């Protein structure tokens, strides 16, 4: 994740999580309140992907707005033709 130097003073915390599968940062002092950015590269395996999402759900700050981007390695339905990736149920996609 690259961040322009002019934003450095706003970063209050950051972390690289689970064997470099995700990285996030939180910025404060911006108009509109604190915001965070999560960059994710989810594992292809369903079990490992679930572990990553559970870890992030527990670990990420909840007092800010989030922008989430990256490679999620997931499909939205069982009828999709895939070679790898894992399936999110409708409830998981909404949550």
Task: Provide an overview of this structure.
The protein has 95 residues and is of the alpha/beta class. It has one domain. 20% of the residues lie in helices and 33% in strands. The protein has two helices and six strands, in the order E-E-E-H-E-E-E-H. It has helices at 46-59, 90-94; strands spanning 11-17, 22-27, 35-41, 65-71, 74-75, 86-87. The strands form two sheets. A four-stranded mixed β-sheet has the order 1-2-3-4, with no helix packed on it. Strands 5-6 form a two-stranded parallel ribbon. The longest helix is centred in the middle third of the chain and has 14 residues, at 46-59. The chain is elongated. The two termini are 25 Å apart. Residues 81-85 have low confidence and may be disordered.
Features:
95 residues, alpha/beta, 4-stranded mixed sheet, 20% helix, 33% strand, elongated
Q: What is the CA-atom radius of gyration, in angstroms?
A: 15 Å
Major pleated sheet: 4 strands, mixed
**Number of DSSP E strands:** 6
Share in β-strands: 25-35%
Classify the secondary structure makeup into a structural class.
Answer: alpha/beta
Return residue spans where pLDDT drops below 50 for at least 5 consecutive residues: 81-85
- The strands making up the biggest β-sheet line up spatially as 1-2-3-4
Instruction: Estimate the mean pLDDT confidence.
Output: 79
Share of helical residues:
10-25%
Distance between the termini: 25 Å
What shape does the CA trace take? elongated
The total domain count is 1
In N-to-C order, the SSE pattern is EEEHEEEH
Per DSSP, the total helix count is 2
């Amino acid at each position: 994740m690259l961040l322009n130097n002019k934003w450095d003073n706003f970063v209050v915390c950051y972390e690289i999580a689970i064997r470099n599968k995700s990285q996030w940062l939180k910025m404060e002092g911006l108009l509109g309140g604190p915001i965070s950015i999560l960059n994710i590269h989810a594992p292809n395996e369903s079990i490992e992907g679930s572990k990553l999402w559970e870890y992030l759900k527990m670990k990420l700050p909840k007092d800010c707005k989030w922008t989430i981007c990256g490679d999620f390695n997931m499909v939205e339905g069982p009828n999709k033709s895939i070679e790898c990736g894992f399936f999110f149920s409708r409830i998981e996609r909404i949550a």
